[in-house]
Request: fold
Amino acid sequence: MSLNVIDLIKGQLGPALVSQAASQFGESESGISKAIGGLLPAVVGGLANNADNPGVLDAITKASSSGILGNLLGGSSSNPIITSLLSSLFGDKVGGLVNSIASFSGVSNNTAGSLLNLVTGATVGTVGKYATDNNLGASGISGLLNDQKGIISSLLPAGLSLASFGLGAENWFGQAKETVSSVTSTAKDNIAEGVATARESVSEGAREVREQFNNNNNNNEGGGSIWKWLLPLLLLIAAGYFLWKQCEKKQTTTTTTAASDSTATGTTVDTAATTGTTTPAPATVKTDENIDLNGVMLKGYKGGLEDQMISFLKSGGYKNAADDAALKDKWYDFDHVNFKMGSSTNLEAGSQGQLDNLVAILKAFPDAKVKIGGYTDKTGNEASNVKLSQARADYIKAALAKAGVGAQVLGAEGYGSKFATVDAKASDAERAADRKMSVRFAK
Reply:
């Protein structure tokens, strides 16, 4: 199962960074977010197209130890690795890429240029870190990048395409160009073959009719037969019609084959992007409310983790549970606790508040014990998924222990994608349901 590199990189480009970038560049957060959304697949596409370039692979390897990820906003624009890499990836098309992104997102050209450096830094830094963590050499990095070629176009936001950057697929991914050339060549060969066959058939037919015509002339010698002028006319009409039908048949067959090959090479992506314009049903908006914890108000969703856990404890459900078997099937998903993509130690902004709420609940019910669970979606290597989910569960357990309720946390386990339900080929937004942290009561 191939890893979607863009999913990893998004963890470095979350809401907190978007907000900081908007403040630093004097742009709206929506404009910054839109620009990043267009630049990310373009940069990953550039890397994928240069997956076998030693200089690019060396830059990715060096990026993991260069500190790029620790200072994306401050150090990306002046980092020599990024400057050199952009030249290798896009050459003289950097300006066109920046202009297209600026026009698409509504930010200034200067901001778009700075964001290109930032996104490139986040990309090579993340890929380099992943390679280091998973002991990938140059060949492993190359294989990882090559795996991205089939998904790049589908990840571009509506309204953008490789062509709009001056980076058409035929210029980037040589295989597509080669396939088109092959199809065109085959079509030409088929048509030529059809014409030759038609000519041969007409020639044979003409010979037979000519012999018959000569026989008639011999039988009607001196009679001024009508066949003397009618037969050549009929022969000419028949030959022209036969030749036209043969060529038309061959050309139609070739066109159908070419269309099928185009579909196979992924050209239906743009069609899906342009035809899928149906406005989705608006999502239900959740709003934090006051959740009563024995007179203390916690901020949380109605029906969310805090609400459900407090209600269960107040109802006597935990106290009356005979053993752990009676509790093990009921998990409470965190509504706000999320890790940055690919990380087991960096939480997204807003996560700490819900951890504090869980600490408050456990302190209010000191007899209650819990267990932490970590989960991933179905993409990526399963061994790595299990390792990542376990590390995240351990991180939550350690955070609770640091807050003074460690004795109430009986365990932490990472399940990887074992319980994931969304197909690996689904969109990132759909697969987000499987990437979660949960907690359950235990005894």
Summary: The CA atoms of residues 156 and 343 lie 24 Å apart. The mean pLDDT is 76. The first strand starts at residue 289 and ends at 293. The radius of gyration is 33 Å.
